[in-house]
């Protein structure tokens, strides 16, 4: 068999699909028959200097895929499989891999590097393969440059794959020393220097101790900065990537180097090749990101504690930084607006300018205004576009006070330019800038309105006109209209948009029907804007929103009539169905919230539901999700009558709940089950066996994305509240599940912020389940069934209180559960409650909370407890 | 290790509309869940029960004939029909006589202060009672209704109370009703809220006064009920400043300025629940300085020479107060009842003759009464014992503000003394 491996691997890359499939099948059988021998032959193949490079590469690739997978569950299986493999076999494989690093064939070395890192990622956390790093480091001193290069590359991959906490500082020091030496200007071989520079990028996450040591940090920074001046463009680019990463990982260490960094980047932005110049701009964008985060944490209160102080690098660099960025704006490419993947100096520069504006606020305005004034009327479109882009970029950050007067002058100019400028690129940016004006300077929170009765009509007219322009311009005009209407979101009962409502809706529908609406995201933008128009509408226009229902339904119906679609056509159909379902969802939610409009809307309910059910038959993840969301809105609006759709809908609910891969679909379906429970109350009972079974399966699965689990627990509560004591038969399954999840989520010690956030979501879900169950059983003769669970629940409340890391939402739900328990169990739980910490310290803390929802729940709990212990 | 992609979003809104749709749906679901939860919690505690004995006027004649049976089986009244339990929400839908009967029984009626309760300064609140019509304000199903003490409708209007007006943007559960205990103050057309019984479907009957007042003050402000009237909020609502009944509190309530005409002082025991009917845990007290209506007036607004009182005629001819248990002031003999065509349940007006009321060991022993006739039809109840007593002592030896201050404790400083002088002047 081993003899044949080379040929099979080559056949597996054959252009002849029959040969290829046959080879793939042989490989699969080989792997299934004897995994150890299979992996051994692959490693032998990869190491074999007499083998063709293509078979060696594929052997390495299959090895790599035998060690890791994207999907978490599969990844876990592969790790376990490797760990249980015979030690001798593994030792042999690893020897082959290390040996391959010395191969003169570049592709073989490079593949081996990656496989070694994958093995390391499994074994190092298990304290296995302790000699790996030592033996790699000994390679560094070998003479052949290609071995050194492969070793550095391996160290780079290793740092990328392995978590820093499984490598001890001593080894980190040695790795860094080797890597930084390899980057040094003394290193004559550019391949080695490039590999070292890329390795450093990954090793930076290991270097916290070294960055805290002044001498070591100085040395690393000097070498990185020198590498940005290397004659080899790839090395310069890689060195800048390191600088970008350092700027965000070690922001607080930058102060001594910032002047040099500015000089290096300014030179690169002005003189270097584009890939390098883009990295140089990205460095300043990253510093902006850091300072925006820090300042946000300060919350405007400069005495507040923050882990990292703000060094105001951007503010200090401003006089030099802004002119440098403004120069880049003039380097636009023709038609960049038509290329989805475009990313050039002008785009990066403008984006960075926007971040700078957010960082420094008002200070940027006087530095940019002269550039705008000078260029905005120039005959060269590049100058007009650059000026407009600069203006649009600085609209977020500076105070409205600073901007309003300027915008008032500019607004008219922009409207004229959008109508009359001969250049489409300028119009695109102008429409985008108008959108930014409306986004940041228009709305109920802005004191001086930009849009007045005097100019509203003109603005609407120009935007609607622009929707007939080129797709990219029309798309931006839709975006501007989106923010224009959003500004009237909470206007009350009379909106200034009302007189134009009909015309706006007509124009947007017209855009969706344009032949070229598939370009530049135009159709999507038009529907999204239509959604926002509906969301922000008032009762005055409810009848017009109602008229939209049959129109959107007809469009959805048409997508269902299309026959024999190509795969491309099917994709487009799915996308369109998603947009239309989304639109119907928004309309349903809007009209469902208004009593008079709701009744008129309900006449369409049957037809809408029928369409959604047909959409489900198309089975595409996104459509499924949108239709499901929409169904939730219909259920909420319909109430108990929704029962008539259940027989047909049920199987799709089940399907949604089974969709582990597209977890969003599963999550949305869980939410909709909640909607249905609230709509149907006890009429949901006949479907509960199936739903509960599926939910319990979901919870036990380690394939399902963890974010879906908290809502599933909440859904238990929804079901229990709807069916009351009928929940009895699920108690024996649900309660142990809740109990073990509660135990897991009681303590968070040592977890990071993200984990604490998730734990709180989980706690909230568990508590909502308890709440629903207690309230569901209230006043039932079966209340006593819950008594055995009370001690654990009270203990859970006590322990999360002691843990002191719950957020306000959990606090509100938790104190509510205490009340529900007391309310439902009454005197049966009186003494238990009195023994708990929750009914004293925790309750008191909630009673004196500033959050009125917490206070309300606490007051209620206090009452319920008083009743429970007084009886 | 290829170069890392550094493209940032360009000319794009940061949030996709699809994400927005998801987020808004989640938000709606969260809100719906919260509502469902609240509903579950509120319903659990808002069930009020009362004995329903609807006796339509047409049956009143026959009722008299039932007397004999009733005497044979004294418990018969309780067996007459099953106790009818109305949820407050259901009750809010009651109309006509039924509604009147129901609401007439739901108000907490303070007794009159005829002696000073102990621990006045620690266990009691005091506030100046606004002059006006005591009423229940009920918001439900998008409208607000106020009903007087006897159950008669005062106003029907839109208000900013939860579910108190049809405002289309807000979808509220039908169970989100409110019941406020108010005094309608004519001069500024304002409802002064003196107590809160239900809020957004949340029953406060079983809560202490301390909590009810806290809740009342925070909730009314929250929903903007105290704001200036508008289309959807026809009448202004206002809270009444409530003080701890210490020297300072009592003094402020007594002489401090308020935006309304005062009609005496109300004292609420901090730990008492909202009890329907007469309760000694809420007290009313008046003198000429803080009320225009200390001594009862007749229908023409004149103070009669003799104290008048209203008593209920019972089956056996006895004349009872509205208290539970009632206090018997005397009886009418059967001849008189026959002759005048009176029957049990009638409210009768009497004057206190020169003989007055005599007491033995603090208990009423004898009352010298003179029958004047049937009372005004609008009246729902007889006078309470404490009312009669208060009126009696006001005419003979009134309980003065000095007595109240004295009971609170030794005077801390000269304030009260100088205050006394002022009052004397």
TrEMBL record, chain A:
Belongs to the importin beta family. Importin beta-1 subfamily. Its main location: cytoplasm. It holds the Pfam family IBN_N. Keywords: Cytoplasm, Protein transport, Repeat, Transport. GO terms for biological process: protein import into nucleus. GO terms for cellular component: cytoplasm. Residues 23-103 form the Importin N-terminal domain. One of its GO terms (molecular function) is small GTPase binding. Signal peptide: none annotated. It is found in: Cytoplasm. This is Importin subunit beta-1-like. It comes from the Eukaryota. It comes from Coffea arabica (Arabian coffee).
Automatic annotation (TrEMBL), chain B:
GO terms for molecular function: RNA binding. It holds the Pfam family SPN1_m3Gcap_bd. Residues 106-282 form the Snurportin-1 m3G cap-binding domain. It is found in: Cytoplasm; Nucleus. One of its GO terms (cellular component) is nucleus. CDD domains: Snurportin-1_C. It comes from the Eukaryota. Coiled coil: none annotated. Residues 1-22 are annotated as: Disordered. The keyword Transport applies. InterPro entries: Snurportin-1 (IPR017336), Snurportin1_C (IPR047857). Keywords: Cytoplasm, Nucleus, RNA-binding, Transport. GO terms for biological process: snRNA import into nucleus. Functions as an U snRNP-specific nuclear import adapter. Involved in the trimethylguanosine (m3G)-cap-dependent nuclear import of U snRNPs. Binds specifically to the terminal m3G-cap U snRNAs. Belongs to the snurportin family. This is Snurportin-1. The gene is LOC113722446.
